[in-house]
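Researcher: Structure prediction, please.
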Amino acid sequence: MGLGQYIQQLAAAKELTKILPVSINPPTLFGRGRYKTNYTWCDIFIAIQNIGDIAIDDYKLYIQFDSATTEDVDDCLRLINDPLIGERVHINNQRLNAQEVFESKDYTMAIEYIPKERTLVPIDRKRFKIRIKPKQGATEINATWLFVSREFRKHGELKVVISPRYEDKETIIEVESEEQLKEESIKIYPKIVEE
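Model: Predicted structure follows.
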C-alpha cells in the first residue's frame, strides 16, 4: 500500500482523523519529514588490506586528525530518535552492536576502528567510512595513523586534500540614504540545505 492510499484510508475513517494527525511527509529513519544536510562534511572511505602471507590477529586502527585544520570528525553512526518508530530501540541496539568505528573518547579529533572480526587473513580487505568537517579555508588535512595488532605496530601520516566547491550568491540590500551604504563584502557560509 502506498502512502497516498494510506492517507486516503485515514481520511475515510472519521474517528481516526480526529485522533491521528495526517502527515504528507512520511517518517524517515532520521526523523519525521524534512531534515538538514550539511555539505561541509567530507566522506572518507578507508580500506585496510593484508598484503602479507600470515594472518593479522587482534588489530585496531587509530586515526587522529590535525585540529588546526579539522573542525569535527564523525564515526557515521546514526541512531533513530523518532518516538513514533516503535522498533527504534531494537534497531538502535543492532546498530550499536554492529558498530566498528568509534569517535575516540581518549583523544580529540580521532577515530578508532575496532573490528568485530579480529583476524585479517592474507589478501582480505576491510572497509569503512568516516566523515570529517574541515575548517573554513583549509586546503588539506593532515592526520597520523597507528595500526596495532598482536604481532606488530605500524604508524604513518596521511594527507587529505580538500577541494571546496563554492556557489556564488549575490544579495542586494536596498537602503534609504547614502549614509547607510556599505562597501561590498564577500562572505563564505556553509551550505546547509533542508531536504
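Model: The chain has three helices and 14 strands.
Researcher: Thanks, that helps.
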